[in-house]
Amino acid sequence: MKKWVKVGMASVLATSMLAGCAKSSDKQAAEGGNSGGKAKFSISMRTLAFNYVEKSPNINEDKWVKKLEEKTNTDLDIVLVPHKEFEQKMIQMFATNDIPDVVQGSGGVAGKEMAGSVQAGVFMPLDDLLQKYGQNLLKKIPKEAWQKETYQGKIYAIPEFLSNPSRRATAIRKDLLDKAGLPVPKTVDEYLNVLRKFKEMGVEQPYQGRENFKYADTFFGAYDVFPYLSQSMLKDNQVVPKFFNVDGMQKALQTYKTMFDEGLISKEFATINPTVYKNNILAGKAGVWSMNANELLQWEQQLKASVPTAKIELIPSPVGPDGKGGYYLYNSVTRAWFINKNVKDPAAIIKFFDWMVSDEAEKFFTFGVEGENYTAKDGKIDYKAPTDPQGVDEERYRQAFLWMVQDTTYNKGTLSLTEDGKKLMNIYDTMLSKEGRDGIQFEPRLDAYIKNPDISPESDFAAPVLMAHMVKMVYGKEPISDWPKVIEEWKSKGGNDVIKEATEKYNKKDPNVTISMPRR
């Protein structure tokens, strides 16, 4: 592959350039097959802010990549895409027509990062290939996930999937809570009281904030006002974003302002990046935060390196007036793998991904190499999970980054080995299965959002025009009572078109649009 270069080209132009680069016929693709030697192909992968990945001097020389190649008889050329610049780098990739054989997307066929490439014919439909070479994939991956990768009746990507959409959870330093002598908080007010007590105890970050309220949106969930792409509701016979709930939005913003005014959240929360966020938690500086539940045990091991007596526990998220709470429910697809239409041997690539859902792959990604990382006797696995930060990073990389197609809800193999692991699985099956906020969703993204990026939200943070006001209101630079004015500004900048389009498609049940209703 050529190296990517920086260009300032819009995704619309990128799409027009892509239409001419797809030349191979569907029939040729379906009849492909490995000629007998190693299957060589390039694959782009978002770094996901994984330390092990971003610190690797050469990911293609990594020992786990080499072992994966041995097991799958492949020769991989992994092209890393920086996590923070993912959308920008993807658009550049399509604009320069420097497209790997396999491209990782974030979810469905119409994701912003895909820049219209599926619609432009850059990737091949996979139905025939999957029937011939991917039967394990078809059996293991749920129908909802395949639907996300379907365009005009054909499958265009292999999805990594999520069987439980409630993935994020509220975490607390249980050792600090016990020291404070307080019960597990349930309501917003009870949470604020715990944070106040943590501050009295000298906890530097009672509630760990983060820029764009990303992984710091706990209290928006309590009032069911997430200003995200998946969060729309019916109001007065129109489909509108949930932040139109003025009373709920003002109460959520007031909660954050109270935390800001009382020093329960960092005064610099609006500029805290993901690295600082995690480092603060693992250094023992935080009391309450949001995290992906499946990383609980690994984070706790890393935290114990700084604070040996620390104990992290996942607790019910704060509930609001309706008695509910939690975070936004995830898409049923976490990553998706698209195959370039110009690939010479797509069958070998399908076989590679089909292996990913085999028992052999599960054992490899979960435990590593027998004799080196674990032993097996009478069908029982003896595996000691790493406890040092570097070892935990490496395990996480193998289990979550390199394992490209799996149910990412949690790693059942590892968790089943310990009592703490079994407890975490129980939390998923009981507590998290009852939490979470969802709304009316449209796939692909509404045209009115694409035309007006300033008012267009992402999966887990608000549109720029909203975010600017939200931060100012928490900082006391604007009155929270002005939220109705913010809604009017959003409407004037294209929001009225969003409402009109969403309502029309909802009422007409547009056959070219997938409309998902709230799951809970």
TrEMBL record:
<protein>
    <submittedName>
        <fullName>Lipoprotein LipO</fullName>
    </submittedName>
</protein>
<feature type="signal peptide">
    <location>
        <begin position="1"/>
        <end position="19"/>
    </location>
</feature>
<dbReference type="InterPro" id="IPR006059">
    <property type="entry name" value="SBP"/>
</dbReference>
<keyword id="KW-0472">Membrane</keyword>
<keyword id="KW-0564">Palmitate</keyword>
<keyword id="KW-0449">Lipoprotein</keyword>
<dbReference type="Pfam" id="PF01547">
    <property type="entry name" value="SBP_bac_1"/>
</dbReference>
<keyword id="KW-0732">Signal</keyword>
<keyword id="KW-1003">Cell membrane</keyword>
<dbReference type="InterPro" id="IPR050490">
    <property type="entry name" value="Bact_solute-bd_prot1"/>
</dbReference>
